[in-house]
Structure formats: structure tokens, C-alpha cells
Amino acid sequence: MNMRPSLRLVSLPLFLSLLLSGCSQSSSDNQAKTALTALANADKCGYGPRPAKPAALQRYAVGYTEDVCVPLQPEQAGIILMGGSTDVDSIFTDKVRPYLQGGNVLVLRTQGGAGYNDYFWHLLQAASVETLIVDSRDKANSEYVRWAVQSAEFIWFAGGDQSSYIRNWQGTQLQQAVQYAYNKGAIIGGTSAGNAILSDVIYDPDGVGSAVSTAVAQDFCHANIKFSPAFLAAPMLANTLTDTHFKQRDRMGRLMVFLAHHQARALTGIAVSERTALWVERSGATDVFGEHEVYIVRADEHTRWQQTQCGQPVQITDLLRYRLTPGDHYQLLLHQSNVSPIRLSVDGTKSPIYSPANPY
User: Which residue of 154, 185, 191, 195 shows the fewest CB atoms closer than 10 Å?
Assistant: First the structure.
């Protein structure tokens, strides 16, 4: 529930334009900052002053980094699932920027730098963008990280290693604060590993090599197959498992095997190719952005899990596969789409392992 006051920042775009212009006149910068301070009304936001930053916590920030109060409408918020490689500008400009209304953006990662700061600051016309390198559980449990996460209007999980994210963040104040931010109406999103941690079941190899379709199709219990429970409780992503870099790295086979590991839960696989993103509304409706495809894979009453025993090649027949491109839609709660599915099978005893031979 959003506890923030219903304060609309009518004049904020003017002050953001001054900040984003990189104006050399310090008086103009000071005027813009003073005006933002008045508009932000930070004392009434409910989060209190920014806590002291732990000395070991790496932080990069641009813009006005005090908390800017923006009225949020959770029913209009969503989740962004991006497939990796080049980011998809259009989903940010179409979905995030109008909703953000000049609020605060937070980027979370366990390694890397400030690569997103200027990109998001200008693209989203945000008051600020802050990147935190949260690479330990101690840092994830700090009051500084909790405050930064709770007060953000848009939270972005960068690419990296989802196992590192789960190992350092699961069960910490950071995780609790992400859930709070989602509940209040913040937009949450991630690319590559940042996408992987947003589904209900998380593929979490935890230090072993990334699963390869041809390898896991030959052994249902391949050592590279491991899972973790949900990091974020988002009802429209209940009983889902996401995958990324999908068509480019031929990950259809591994997704099919992953689904077979959760037959009783009847998971829906959401697989996003590179330079592509899926917008997921809280109603379960979706929109595709970018250059390539999103694939929805799931079982129905015609699916047969013929061979799913450890040490043996996998055999699965008649999974449903939907191929979505920009303009297509899939309703995750109702399992309805404007696209007709095909039937897809995998057999680890054969080469190619797929039927039809090209599953994409």
C-alpha cells in the first residue's frame, strides 16, 4: 500500500530540464535544487532522512538524490522482463517515464559500475539515478540499502549472476524492501540475471556452469540444473520460470527440462530473447518491445512427460509454445493470447533434440 502523500510534481519537468542540461551557471543549479527540495517534501514521505552509508558500500549517483515524493498507482505499475544484450529504450520511454513523473531510480547489482546512471537519468527524466553494488549480506541488511530501495519509484536489477543475487540478497532487508516497493506501486525490472530473479521459480546454478539445452536433454538431473524459490512475490508471475538470451543461445531445450522438474506446479515458462523485453501488468496482460521474440511455454492436458528420470535422456511431447513479437499479447493469468501456439517436443536420444527441428 502506498503511504506517500498525493503530491503531483507539476513543476518538476522544468527543474529536471535545468539539471539535465548540465547548466554551467551555479545559480541556476542552486535554484533548481532549492525548488526540488521544496517539491520533494521529504519530511512527509514517511521514510525519514537518508541513513549513513556503510563505508564499504559502493554507491554511484546522479541528479537530486533526496527522496522525491511521487503519487503511485499500483494497478498501473508493472514488471519488466528483459532478455539481455542491448537494452530496449522503448519500454522505458513508453512505460516507465510517464509513470515515474520525475521520481527516483535505483539500480541494484553485485558487481559493475555506474553504467546505467546517465542512461536512465536522461532517458527517464528522473530526479536521480543511484546505483548500489550490494555484494554481501551485511550490505543487503544495512539501513542505507533498505531506505534506498523502499523510497525508489523504479528499481532495476542489472545483468550479472543471478546466483550472486540470490546468495547475497535472499532473506535480507534488501529483499523485504523490494517487496515493499512493489506493494506500494514501484515498477520493478531486470535484464538477463536481473530478469531471472523476478519469476516465481528461479533458475539458480549457484556456481556451476550454465545449463546447455543439448546437455540437460541427455540427463534429467544434470548437475547444472538447480532452482531457488521466489525473490519477489508478484501475483501475475505466480508459477512462472523465466529465461533470457533465449533464441540466441538455444535455450528452448533447457526451459522444457526446467518445466519438467516442476510438473506438479504446471509452471509457465517466459523466455525473452536478446534486445527484447516483456512488460507484464499486474492484471497479467503483457506487451512485447524490442527486436526479437518472447516465448511462452507451458503444458496442458495433451502434454506427456514420457521420460523424466535421473541419469536418462529426457523425453517430453506436446508442450505448448507461443511465439510473441511486438504487437502480440499473452494473458498470464488467463492463458489467453492473440497468437496460436504450436506443439513442441524434446527427445534427448535424438539429434536434433527438437520436434519440429526448429523450435523457434
Answer: 185
In this structure, the chain runs to a length of 360
Asked if residues 220 and 310 have their Cβ atoms less than 8 Å apart, the reply is: yes
What DSSP designation does 50 have?
P
* Res. 17: pLDDT tops 70: no
Q: For residue 260, give the C-alpha cell.
A: 519438467
Rounded CA separation 340/317 (Å): 18
Instruction: Count the neighbouring beta carbons within 10 Å of the beta carbon of residue 338.
Output: 11
**CB-count burial class (<10 Å; 0-12, 13-18, 19+) for 288:** buried
98 Cβ contact list (under 8 Å, min separation 6): none
Q: Is residue 181 within 8 Å of residue 311, measured between CB atoms?
A: no
- Other CB atoms within a 10 A radius of the CB of residue 188 amount to 23
CA atoms 78, 276, 321, 324: torsion sign: positive
Q: Quick check: 67 and 39 in contact, CB under 8 A?
A: no
Of residues 151, 127, 157, 148, the one with CA closest to residue 64? 127
- Neighbouring CB atoms inside 10 A of 224's CB total 16
The per-residue pLDDT for 26 is 56
For residues 255, 333, 265 and 275, what is the CA-based torsion angle, rounded to 10 degrees?
Answer: 20
Q: Which of 76, 204, 58 is nearest to 132 (CA)?
A: 58
CA distance 175 to 141: 9
Q: Helices 26-40 & 12-20, crossing angle to 10 degrees?
A: 140
C-alpha cell at 292: 526479437
Q: Peptide bond before 51: cis, by omega within 30 degrees of 0? A: no
Tell me the C-alpha to C-alpha distance, in Å, between residue 114 and each of 158, 187, 281.
Answer: 11, 20, 28
- Looking at residue 46, its pLDDT comes to 82
Residue 150: name the closest of 218, 103, 210 by CA. 103
pTM of this structure: 0.91
